[in-house]
Amino acid sequence: MKANTGVKMIPLQGEAFGKPMVIYPTLLWDDDRAVLVDTGMPGSWETIRQEMLRAGIPPERLQAIILTHQDLDHIGSLPEIVRELGGQVEVYAHELDQPYIEGTRPLLKTNAQSMAPILAMLPEKEREHLQWLCENPPKAMVHKTLADTEILPYCGGIRIIHTPGHTPGHISLYVQDSKTLIAGDAMVYMNEALRGPIPQTTLDMEMAVNSLKKFENLEITSIICYHGGMCQNNVEEQLHALIR
Ligand SMILES: O=c1ccn([C@@H]2O[C@H](COP(=O)(O)O)[C@@H](O)[C@H]2O)c(=O)[nH]1
């Protein structure tokens, strides 16, 4: 029997890096399990938990967290979720971002040196907070690393697509049942238009643009961008216009 599967974005609103920001972790579920893709900034677990309850998915059903990459706004609430749910949750990420998420290497972007221009512009309280996060970044163990083309057996099958560029271990996810592409930061959705990676925060633009070719042969009905949310208008046309 086919499982009942679902996809729901969890909008998280707040202030980050000196500006207002809305970001979109995604909740996936089937009959008995739920999966969270990315965890928001530190302190977001309570909002995510409430949104899960509103969707009728008890947090105890959460069995996996998939991190699209190491950036602070994606891994921020990982420690608090793992602390609360403990051993029931398996954490997944690509091996190239694993050491940063586990804290054995400093985060590639959210460190005092890279953040210096932003830190200098912030009011004192926010500066102290971001400085503290740079020195004490969230970290947690990655239980399983993910490789390109692998299919995770949750929610009707989640295909892993390695899309390096924004970070070396950036992954996107293709949810087979609903034909939804969870693009992480490989693309953004702004003013009802799908756009490529943002140069300001992408470590290797050439690689990031090249990674978009991996979406070329997918049948896609919706794309969820972490920045901008869900794109459902002329999805394949918009996507093909970005692929060079
Ligand atoms: O203006 C900014 C915003 C963010 N950063 C750093 O880049 C990463 C990724 O940011 P995204 O907005 O998710 O692409 C973030 O964790 C910050 O460390 C930046 O340098 N400048």
TrEMBL record:
It comes from the Bacteria. The keyword tRNA processing does not apply. Keywords: Hydrolase. InterPro entries: Metallo-B-lactamas (IPR001279), NDM-1-like (IPR050855), RibonucZ/Hydroxyglut_hydro (IPR036866). SUPFAM superfamilies: Metallo-hydrolase/oxidoreductase. It holds the Pfam family Lactamase_B. GO terms for molecular function: hydrolase activity. It catalyses: 3',5'-cyclic CMP + H2O = CMP + H(+); 3',5'-cyclic UMP + H2O = UMP + H(+). Signal peptide: none annotated. Residues 22-227 form the Metallo-beta-lactamase domain. Counteracts the endogenous Pycsar antiviral defense system. Phosphodiesterase that enables metal-dependent hydrolysis of host cyclic nucleotide Pycsar defense signals such as cCMP and cUMP. This is MBL fold metallo-hydrolase.
